[in-house]
User: What shape does this take?
Amino acid sequence: MNLKKDFIPYGKQEITQQDIDAIIGVLQSDFITQGEKVPEFERLICDYTDANFAVAVNSATSALHIACLALGLRKGDWLWTSPISFVASANCGLYCGASVDFVDIDPDTYNISISALEAKLIIAKRVNKLPKIIVAVHLAGRSCEMQRIRQLSKEYGFFIIEDASHAIGAKYLGKSVGSCLYSDICVFSFHPVKIITTAEGGLATTNSSEIAEKMQLLRSHGITKNDAEMDDYHGPWYYQQHHLGFNYRLTDIQAALGISQLSRLDEYVSVRNRLVEIYNDLLAGLPIRLQKNSSDCYSSCHLYIIRLDLEQLSVSRRHVFELLRAANIGVNVHYIPIHTQPYYRELGFTDGDFSQAEQYYQEAISLPLFPALSIEQQYSIVDCLKKALRF
Assistant: This one.
């Protein structure tokens, strides 16, 4: 993609000399793949989130996959998630042979609606189709109502995976997202547009040693080199494959970048929150709606999503989107409802299945948000938006 020099993307990584030096240090070491940096990165994430265990992998998609496998998801089971997410939040269930369904979103938070979840669980129990796993997506870095989801999990007997791909650095009820206080596993993404990056990469936290051990095996071909886990030990060269695993490993090069970036995580999240406050002030009075936050949540502010009040506007969302793109503002839409994708339509989903998610999609635009975004750029973005809205 050829971008103009003054193009403002919706998200952007920041790579400093500290990051470059960290990577060079690994390149000059004896191990560039499976050395000391991956375990160090995992320990630092545990320290940050207060989780007991962390398993680093090559993407959040991989983390979701092995998380589902570690919880025993298989054919005949159900996984539920939000329709407003990237497709990986649902695909992870299909990878395991399970069936997938969705829970409509709350119109204010854009996360899973607790009332819709509870109503769906009541019906599912009646017809014996309760989910084995619910993937709770923290859209834009704003935590779901995890305490209530945990209460429902105890009542209805499902596991919880937090898809916190947007939410490293966020807090819920004063605790770091990733602590797994209200979930079985929490998954982070370190893609370049996320809060911190390892180029590509992901990680799963958990407080269960059994779950952590399963994910560690699954990320590396299902192979163990621990003689205590073997039924027949031949010598120090020996290994055994106990599961059908995958090559989902993170490299030391990527982990070194993650370690360096992690040292600036709180700073990045603080800057993002300040930029959100500026946007909120600049956009006051316009016919748009913003994601609702609460005192329970401290968002990592991965995305700044606006919803156009189309009833008050004489222009369409596409018109606004295209005018902003023409002005070199890299707006985007997060996300297209998963159940409307052609693949999921073939599974039986249709328009109208999740009305709140579909309405959200018709109105949503993500404005640029990243730590290096200047206030001058924010003023320019809002000025262009006002012109596009004809307001």
